[in-house]
Amino acid sequence: MNADLDRLLAGVGALLLDFDGPVCSVFAGYPAPQVAAELVDVLRKHSVDVPPDLAGEPDPLEVLRRVGATSGQDVTRAVEDALCAAERRAVETAEPTPYGREVIVAARQAGIPVAVVSNNSAGAVGAYLAAHRLASCVSPVVGRAYSAPDYMKPNPAPILQAVRVLGEQPRRCVLIGDSLSDIEGSRAAGVRVVGYANRQAKIEEFQAASADVVITDMIEIAEVLIKRIGG
Fold first, then answer.
1. Neighbouring-strand partners of residue 17
2. pLDDT tens, 46-96?
3. Residue 20 has pLDDT above 70, yes or no
4. 160, 64, 75: which is closest to 120 by C-alpha?
5. pLDDT in tens, 115-167
6. 3-class SS at 37?
7. 3-class SS of residue 193
């Protein structure tokens, strides 16, 4: 048992989960580089001069972020719409993260509200949760603000939105995320954060970024929550 994690979750008022990573691998069956390339094609159809580094960008969220910073709203909305559609398609073949479901169910059984705060679209998150019979266990779902990529994490705005809806204080919430943007956004929001290092290289990165606790498997969270259920 992870003693630091046990202490961190001892008085938690709400659990906030990033989606792509802690809950599932969104693009497991519809690879992210393919989606990113399709978004670049949208730019070309709108007569946008695409620089080589953007043309080779493998992360669709980064494509959207770049477009939002350099293009007008019409182009940004077109890319946003294409990404939302791709994410809805992707969640049909998304691969559940081992013990991600158990964390959600155990938290609810322990009386801890669970929210999802994601840079993916809320529609895609909701579709996944419904398909996996988890929708009743998670509320709210705070997804990417439409056509406003500046509001994606590490911007703390979506995290604080979830905290407000839950009616909790930030310091009583814990976010579980698998990226530096999750850690940075949580720090800015005053929320405690567990870094889920689903790759070995992330362990030192998350420690350096001052995650409260770093884990390598979601079973670590599940075990703490299940112990709480059992008293």
1. 116, 176
2. 999 999 999 999 999 999 999 999 999 999 999 999 999 999 999 999 999
3. yes
4. 64
5. 999 999 999 999 999 999 999 999 999 999 999 999 999 999 999 999 999 99
6. helix
7. strand
- Single-letter residue type at 66: R
Is the pTM value of this prediction over 0.90? yes
Strand partners, 175: 16, 193
**What type of residue is 37?**
A
- Residue owning tokens 């399709």: 38
Residue with tokens 């659990």: 15
**Amino acid identity for residue 25 in this structure:** S
Residues in the chain: 231
Tokens encoding 90: 């992707």
3-state SS assignment for residue 64: helix
